[in-house]
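To: structure subgroup
Subject: Chain for Friday's discussion

All,

I'm putting the inputs and outputs inline so they're searchable in the archive.
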Amino acid sequence: MNLKRIVLVIILNILIVAAEIIFGVIGNSMGLVSDALHNLSDVIALVISLIAVKFAQREANENMTYGYIRSEMMAGFVNSLFLVAAMIYISVESIGKLMHPEKVEGMTMMIVAGIAVIANSLSVLILRKAGIGHTHHHREHEHKDEHTHEHGIDYEHEHEEHAPDLNTRAMILHLMSDVLISLAVIAGGTAIHFLGIMWIDPLLSLAFAAYIILKAIGVFRSAFFSLMDRTSRDVKDIVACLESFHEIKNVHSVHLTEPSSKDIFFSAHIVIDACMAMREVEGLIERVKDELKKKGITHVILQPETDKYSRDSLICDGH
C-alpha cells in the first residue's frame, strides 16, 4: 500500500474543512458547516485508518499472538461512531435553523461546495489507487504430544486480495458521501441564490444526516459484531462438512470467528477411532482442511480425540 497517498488525502480533507468552516460561517450556511464537520470526521477517520493499517502490517509476537488483525474492525467501529455522533449534532442544529430560517449566501455555498466536490473526487481516486489490499502468510506447523490427544495442523497459505476491506470501505464511504453532500449543497445554493428559498439549507442538512447515519450504521454493525466474535457463517454447514468424512464420529467444541473482513478462523474437536495411526490422522486432517479452505476458512485448527471425549453439544461446554 502507498501510505503517502493516504497522507495526501488527509491533507486535501484538512483544506476542505478549513474552507467550508470559514465560508460556512461567513455565508451563514448550515449545509456548508455540516459538510465541513463531515469532512472533519473524514480527517479523523483517515488518521485512525492510517494508524490501523500500520498496525495491521506488524507481525505477530509473544504478546500479540494473533498480530494486529483486528485493527481493521476497530478502526471501522471508531470511524462509524464518530460519523453518527457528528450527524446527530448536525441534525439538532438544522432543526433549529429550519424553525427559524436565516439569510444564507447561496453563491458562497455553490463556489465552496464546487471546490469540495473536486477535492473529494480526487481523494476517492487517490484512495482507490492506494493499493489497500490484504496479503498474509501462515506457516504450516504441527503440534503433537506423545499421547496424540492434542494434535493441530495449520497449513500455509498466501493470498492477495484487492477488494476493499471494512476499514477501506469506511474511508471510501466517508469520501463518496462527501461528494454527494457537496453536490446537494450546490443545488441548495442555487435554489437559495436564484429563488430565495432559505429553508432549503437546513432541510438539505437533515437529509444528509439521515442518509449518512443509515450508511454508517451498516459499517458499525459489521465492526461491532466482528469485535464481539459473532459470525455471519453457518456453523452447522461447516460441521456437516466435517461429519461427511466417515472417519469422524463426532464434532464438538466448535469455534468460528471473523477477525477481519478477509479472515475466518475455525477450530473444533473431532472424535475418531482410537486405532487410527498418526499418519492416517494427519491425512484426514489435511483432507478436511482442504474442504474447509474451499468454504473460505483461512485458518483451521482441529484436535482429534477418541470416543472418551465425545460430546453432544457443538459449542464448547465451558462457554
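Points worth raising on Friday:
The two ends are 39 Å apart (CA to CA).
The longest helix spans residues 166-195.

D.
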